[in-house]
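cron nightly-structures :: item 1 of 1
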Amino acid sequence: MSLKCNGIREKVDVCVVGAGHAGCEAALACARLGLETVIFTVSVDSIALMPCNPNIGGSSKGHLVRELDALGGEMGKVIDKTFIQSKMLNVSKGPAVHSLRAQADKADYTRTMRKVLENQEHLTVKQAEVCELLWENISDEDKKEKLATKRITGVKTFTGAVYECKAVILCTGTYLKARCLCGEAITQTGPNGLQAANYLTDSLLNMGIEIRRFKTGTPARMDKRSIDFSKMEEQVGDEKVVPFSFSTN
């Protein structure tokens, strides 16, 4: 599919497609370097959304959040402000495998991260679906690497707006040609009922980029009225809370 330009045309340094955890960190990193950055999301209500288990950290992922924080990332700061329970996992084992996990107030986490994005200089949040990557062929004399044959020049949205840029960062998560499987039913949809990024997937395929399908799992949702909590054991958080962000210490 090739969309006609609707007359809206802007020039920026970087376009970030997707406003999940990766997209937020990528956009903030670029903007804080002084690059004029636009981050695109199909819905501003889905910024930093947690459609599955609403937590930050856990085994292996907890280390990653700490590494992001050391590099100036925002995830650790936001979860320290919005968690409802914090727990250090694997404390019965050696310190090398201790891993911090914080259960989030998912609505508060999303609102807080959105506020950070909206108040960041050099960063603009756009509610729009990116449907097409714009590119040009690289001439033999301009090639710096033998494998490079194309150069990104921008993106185009579903409404036909064009954003020219020097770089595009794709943080599409599980939206590309997304399908949701519930029992025997298969629905062509993205997480949390949001639309799948089918047009962008086709654009990548047209560029000659191979697409692979990855499977994720979502915990079952249960009506608490159907559960006998007297037969269950409460898992309490730690009394002494260890923050994720070094700046919180």
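cron nightly-structures :: done
Helices lie at 21-32, 61-70, 75-82, 106-118, 198-206.
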